[in-house]
Amino acid sequence: MGKNNINFFAKIVLHRYFVETLNRKAVQNVKQAFRSQSTKSTGKETCSTSLRLLGFSCGTGLILGKQFYSGNHAYCEAKLKSRIVEDDQTKQLKFDWSRFWQLLKPHWWYLIIAVSSAFVVAILNIEIPRLLGSLINVVSNHMDVDAENTVGAYWQELKVPAIRLGIMYLAQAAFTFVYINSLSCVGERMACQLREDLFSSIIHQDIAFFDNHRTGELVNRLTTDVQDFKSSFKLCVSQGLRSVTQTIGCMVSMYLISPPLTMYMATIVPAVIGVGSLLGRFLRSQSQAAQAQVAKSTAVCDEALSNIRTVRAFAMEEKEMELYAAELEKAKVMQEKLGMGIGLYQSGTNLFLNGIVLGIVGLGGSLLSSGQIKPGDLMAFLVATQTIQRSLAQLSLLFGHYVRGISAGSRIFEYSNVKPSIPLNGGKIIPFHSLFGQVEFKNIDFTYPTRQDQKVLKNFSLTLPAGKVVALVGSSGGGKSTVAALLERFYDVDSGIITIDGIDIKNLDPTWLRGRAIGFINQEPILFATSIIENIRYGKPSSTDLEVMEAARMANADEFIRSFPNGYATRVGERGVTISGGQKQRIAIARALLKNPSILILDEATSALDAESEKLVQDALDKVAAGRTVLIVAHRLSTIQNADTIAVVSNGAIAEVGTHKSLVDKRGLYWNLIRQQQQNHSSETHGA
Ligand SMILES: Nc1ncnc2c1ncn2[C@@H]1O[C@H](COP(=O)(O)OP(=O)(O)OP(=O)(O)O)[C@@H](O)[C@H]1O
């Protein structure tokens, strides 16, 4: 074989597989790494050489470093403005591998298909360069000889490897389809299950859990974290497996082609792996902190949007915007820091790999010139090196995804594994015909879980006789609403006992207690963004339209509902914003009434209404209260006129119990308290 041929093939090999493809891929990889870390692209130009790639990485590092510094500055300022309590972002969460395997188990078959197909693709990717090398050898064998005599022989010789190569390309396409498709099935099913599990766990949590966690943050775990986890899982299985197999396979086939060249390569690879594992721990904690901050910024935005009327009423749009921007800024800084870490890692990896390439070209060229290897072999070797380079670049990218996926998974499992202290089901049910509704609070001590140092109820005792109306009055913050929340078993008492017909409510089925035995109407009833009829039916999903309308009639709601053009089908908007407070309250009464509860809690049910609405609602409540045990948490004198008993709560205990008349006669304490309440109420009203 002539020297010209060697040069010719050396040129093809170098140009086609290194200068063009390899560097283009490398630059794409770097860009993709930055994109996947949601950072701004700092350079639009495409570098075409390894040195420029290095420059790109270093330049990006410097720019990011600058941004990091200025971002930190913004972080300090933003801290002053934030209304959000800082979370403990240093908390290290553990990834629950046993939960992960449980989640994967039902989709095992899909995973096996995906993994085996990805494996076949990887093997094909190893085989293809070898076959390509034999093709090149056939071509080079026929280059120096007289063309006329060899055309037939050339095609004859080329036919078999060419057909084999074609078949391999087809198989590669088919298996690629299979693994992507089956992996997508596993990923989507797992993500769906994760969301279901997480939502189920969240919705079953104690009320105290919600006192402590913001909705936006919870929603973020259900959306962004699950999404991150799913994509990382898919990428790690498909590309990870492929890249590892290809790296190992190519090493073997390279060794078969040329042991000296392979030994040279083998000395470099462990160094890359070593650096990777060192960076791992650091990047993982960075990723968790960044994700927590993203969740926090979502929570700010969620809170502002769900309270848009308050924001508008106080002209706080700009402030909210500032607050959101400050939280976003912190998230951006953290993400950029993470991006910088991953970028540094990847640029370092690329530097190593490009070094290998240069070495191979030098060493391979000398082996070629001394006839120790053929041009096709050198090409096969270089293509295999390129495959390894791409695989390792993929692995370094995947490393970022792995870090991200593991921390997203840890955040998801953190909440899916929390067990509520008050289960939703289980316990006794008192049959309807034997339920009288006598309620007793005996020596209750209570502290809210989120505020352990403030005792809200102290040795609180009270009896609600069956079928009677008891009103709680007292100073603001005295603990009246807390009594109602304890009867609903939103929280468990620290000591003492609450009974219904003599049975401790801890032994009653909480779903029955809240769903059937007790009706709860509070100051700000929340409706769902659906039709009025469906909102009322929420009280008892099995009720017929007629039952719903009957409940609405009793709650003085039927008339105004029918006056709407769409009647019962009228949609009420988010949280019921499209109807008035009084109308909302009457729909809520109808909703509570539908379950025909034996005990009714009215927690300041009319205190947010004007006089006219209050009269309509009060009238509805009086009708509804008849024959039931009623606990009224009262703010206004008008709401307690019909109460059989009035209990004055002061400082977490009962200060006085009597009838309206006896307390009026006593004046003193009672009137002081009522006056104080009225003052509180009017100052709240004026303040708003
Ligand atoms: N979820 C909670 N977590 C922690 N503390 C709470 C919680 N809810 C209420 N508190 C505190 O418990 C105390 C009693 O509150 P509660 O709402 O029972 O008073 P109230 O008598 O109903 O007041 P008002 O008449 O003003 O509505 C208050 O100091 C309040 O700040």
UniProtKB/TrEMBL annotation:
> Gene3D superfamilies under this entry?
ABC transporter type 1, transmembrane domain, P-loop containing nucleotide triphosphate hydrolases
Q: Where in the cell is it found?
A: Mitochondrion inner membrane
For this protein, the record's InterPro entries field holds: AAA+_ATPase, ABC1_TM_dom, ABC1_TM_sf, ABC_transporter-like_ATP-bd, ABC_transporter-like_CS, P-loop_NTPase, Type_1_exporter
Q: Does the keyword Cell inner membrane apply?
A: no
What membrane topology does the UniProt entry give?
Multi-pass membrane protein
Query: One biological-process term from Gene Ontology?
Result: transmembrane transport
Mind listing the UniProt keywords for this protein, alphabetically? ATP-binding, Ion transport, Membrane, Mitochondrion, Mitochondrion inner membrane, Nucleotide-binding, Potassium, Potassium transport, Transit peptide, Transmembrane, Transmembrane helix, Transport
Q: Where is the ABC transmembrane type-1 domain?
A: 112-404
Pinpoint the ABC transporter domain residues.
439-676
Q: Which family does the record assign?
A: Belongs to the ABC transporter superfamily. ABCB family. Multidrug resistance exporter (TC 3.A.1.201) subfamily.
What's the name of the protein?
A: Mitochondrial potassium channel ATP-binding subunit
